[in-house]
Amino acid sequence: MLIAERFLLLCCDPVKGVPQWPRQRHDTPLLAAAALALDLAVQERLDLRDGRLHADAGLPVGHPLLNDALHALAREDLPAPDALRALAHRFDPLPLRILDGLHRRDLVHRLVRRDWLLRKRVRYPLRSVQARNETLHLLAAAAHGEDAHGLALLLLIDASGLLAVHLRAHDHEAAMRRVLALGRAADEAAPMRRVFAAVREALLA
C-alpha cells in the first residue's frame, strides 16, 4: 500500500468518510502531494539537488498514479514547495484519486450524493477495519524503528496535527524525536532523508 494511501486511511473519519483535521484547516491536496513525493523518495526515485527536487524517471514504478507523479516531477526541478503545489494542481482532485484507489481494493466505501446546487459530494467511509488497524500499528512501530515507510507516515501525520490523536504518550515522544531529527539533515545525509527534510519544511512553511 502506498504511503499516500495509508496516510489518507488514517486522516479520514471512519464513519463520515472525509479527512478530519484538528483545529485549523489544512491543505489536503498539498498533504496528498507530499505523500506521493515521500513514496518516490523511499523508492529512491527522488533526490534534492541544489535545493530542488530532482526525479529519476528513467524506469517506471509499479503504481500508475505514482508513475504519473514521477514523470510530472521529472519535467522540471523545482523547490519542494513549488513541486508539491504543481503535483496537487496536476492531479486535482488528488486526495479523491488516492481514495478511489482504496475503494477499488475494497478498503473503503464510495458514497456519492449531490447537493441542492447539483455539486457532487463524495465520501469514503471505512470498509476494512483491519487495513486501518495495520496502519495504526505501523505508525506506532515507526516511532521506535528505522523503517522508511513508517518515518514518512510519521512526518505526514505530524504535519497534519494528528500525531497525538493516533499515538499514546510514550510512542508520541519517540515519534517526535525521529521527526525532529529530520530538521538536522545535512547535505551529506542520505538522499531520502534530504527529501524528507525538504518536504517537511515545505509543509510547515
Query: How helix-rich are the residues, as a percent range?
Result: 55-70%
Instruction: Report the C-alpha radius of gyration, rounded.
Output: 17 Å
From the N-terminal CA to the C-terminal CA, the straight-line distance is 28 Å
Spatial shape: globular
Count of extended strands: 4
Estimate the mean pLDDT confidence. Answer: 93
Strand order in the largest sheet: 1-2
- Number of H/I helices: 10
The helix/strand order is HHEEHHHEEHHHHH
General description of the model:
- The chain is mostly helical and about 200 residues long.
- It is built from ten helices and four strands.
- The strands form two sheets. The chain has a two-stranded antiparallel ribbon with strand order 1-2.
- A hairpin with a 2-residue loop joins β1 and β2.
- The longest helix is centred in the N-terminal third of the chain and has 15 residues.
- About 40% of the residues are buried.
